[in-house]
Structures are given as structure tokens and as C-alpha cells.
Amino acid sequence: MAMDSSEIADRIARHFVTEKGDLSVKPLGDGLINDTFLVTEELPDGERFVLQRINSRVFPEPRLIMENLRILLSHVRERQAGTADVRDLKLPEIRPTRAGLDFWADSEGDFWRALSFIPNTGSHNVLHDSVQAEEAGYALGRFHALTADLDPGLLHDTLPGFHIAPRYLARFEKVAAGVQTVPDSEELRFALDFVGARRSFFAVLEDAALPLRVIHGDPKLNNVLFDEHSGLAASLIDLDTVKPGLVHYDLGDCLRSCCNRSGEAADDASTVAFDLDVCRAILRAYFAETGAFLTAIERRYLYDAIRLLPLELGLRFLTDHLEGNRYFKVERPGQNLQRALVQFRLAESVETQEKSIRRLIDERA
Ligand code: GN1
Ligand code: MG
After folding, report:
1. pLDDT (tens digit per residue) in 12-47
2. Whose CA is nearest to atom 9 of ligand 1?
3. How far away, in angstroms, is 108 Cα from ligand 2 center?
4. What's the CATH superfamily of 5-117?
């Protein structure tokens, strides 16, 4: 049920503070799944923190997200102990409720949790320069390096099927078969044909017997926090999809987000292209952090991941469009179709630059 900001402040945020003062609550970021707010305690030394309502239609057991987060944070803390003077990622901390719980379940059954706000940082929806590109590559590489010795078997699967492309394809085909009407637009026809022509490619990673590792799951550009003063990557946030998976999902997702300089929300898909210079900078920084442990078979499938991830996200948007926008939030009808077209154009641009992208990987890997 919709709540306004003052209601959230009084009914929810209140459980995460000990002081009595006023709380201000403002929407934060533009995530497509959860609802995110910045809470400020209106007191002389008042703190700021991030409050989120986890979308329980998407995440079947939100409690498991918090268990994974505890495991991740304590592992990273151990790895970072004694290295305080060295530059490193700073991950958000859990802010428990006054009663010491990791989350608050409200009377409607909604699941809320709070995290520390990392001060003096900001995020970008599109990349501005090559320093930012390197920094995004560093952030993901560092995350993989920090978790390379964390047993993925210790983590729950908080979102079964996430990034399993053949499952998305199967779901799409089921939904598309149930849509009786003939495609009502050229765009929809294009999108359906685009997927149809690539059916056999969707299983490429799942068929390859790649090793399971700890993944971030959603390392798109605006989940990297940049320090306001130095411009360097300070944090990688949005840790809800940290779980066992393939590094390919992460690297593919990071590149599909960063190398699309028109942005995920571009109005005109024909302007979308995959930027090779950004790709080069990201790979350079990513491999500097992960070169020591990535295996030969993992390297061999990186190009496929770079092609697959935009295709997969496009397919997820397209399926949601056909199903009536039940997964990704929309502000207007047709928005998920438009998002799908952007990702498909990006995948096409990857395909036409296959040779150059493979060369970049081979040079760097
Ligand atoms: C979703 O909610 P948000 O914006 O953090 C989605 C990602 C997509 C992304 C596209 C759990 O993330 O997989 O890449 O939208 N998250 C989930 O913007 O499905
Ligand atoms: Mg996310």
C-alpha cells in the first residue's frame, strides 16, 4: 500500500533510531525493484541512513538477503582488517532496529531494512570520462577479489533463476505464446524477431561448466559510489543479489551498463552503441584486480557474457512488457518495451564489434 514520506518516517524509520527528534524521509536513487529512501535525523549530530522496502514479489524470502549480507560484510571486514591505510571499497553496514533486529516487518507484511549512508559520495547514470570507467572496473574487480575466498556455498540463493538466461527464454516463450494479439507495433515485431534469431545463444554460459563464485548480481554503473572529492570509486552498493553465480553475469552487466553512453533509459534506441574505449578501460582495471584468480575457461567465455547480458536484460524487459509490467516499475505504458529495445541495440552493437572486443579481452586477460 502506498505510504507518504511522513508516514514512512513515523511508522517505519522510527524503529531504526534511538533518539526522539524529527526524521526527514526522501526518495533515493531510481531502482526498478525496491523502494529506497534517505532518512535524516533532524538533530544537531543527526545521522543519515538508507531505508529500503524490499520488494517481496521479487525476493521470495527477504530475510535471506540480510543473512547473506551479514556473511558478506563479516568476510570483507576480516579481509580488510589491518589495511585501513590502503585504498579499498567501503561497503554499507547494516543498521539494526532499536530492538536489535536486522529488519522490520510492518503490519502489512512488508519487509524494511536500513543501511549506513556512505557520506560524500554520489552515483552516475551515464559515464562522463575514462577515469570513471577505470573506477567502475576497479570496483567490480575489487569486489570479486575480496570475495574470491568466500565459499559461495555459504550464501543463500536469494533470487532463484536470477541471470539464468535459458530460464528467462523459456518464460518469455510461454508468455509470448499466451499473448493472442498480433504485435501492434513495428518495435514489438523487431523485439520478438531479435530474440527469435538468437534463441540458441541463451544457454551459452549455463552449458559451459563455469565455476560458481560469489557475485554481486547487479553491478551497473549507478551502483558504484564515487567519492565527491577524488572522483574515485568508494563503494559498490545494492547488495541484495549477492549470491552464488558466475563472474560473467557481473562483468557482462557492468559493461552493458557502463559502455552504453546513451544510458539505459535512452528515448531513442538508435543512438545506443557499445563504447569500446570504455570497455578497454574497464577491462584493464578489472583484470588488474582479478588476474590472479580468473581461470582460463572463465576468460574464454567473457565475450559471450558481454553479448549475453544486454540480450538477457532486454528479454526480461520485453517479457515484463508482455505480462503487463509486473516486475520492473514503469512510469508510462510501453516503457519496458523501450528499455528492451535499448538493450537489444546494445547487444547488436556488441555483435558487430565482436572481433575488437575479443581482442581487448585477449590483450588484457
Ligand atoms: C533491477 O532495482 P534495480 O534497478 O537495482 C534488476 C537488475 C537490472 C536493473 C536494470 C533484482 O535492478 O537485474 O539489471 O533493474 N534487479 C533485479 O536497471 O531484478
Ligand atoms: Mg539492484
Report:
1. 999 999 888 899 999 999 899 999 999 999 988 889
2. 32
3. 23
4. Phosphorylase Kinase; domain 1 (3.30.200.20)
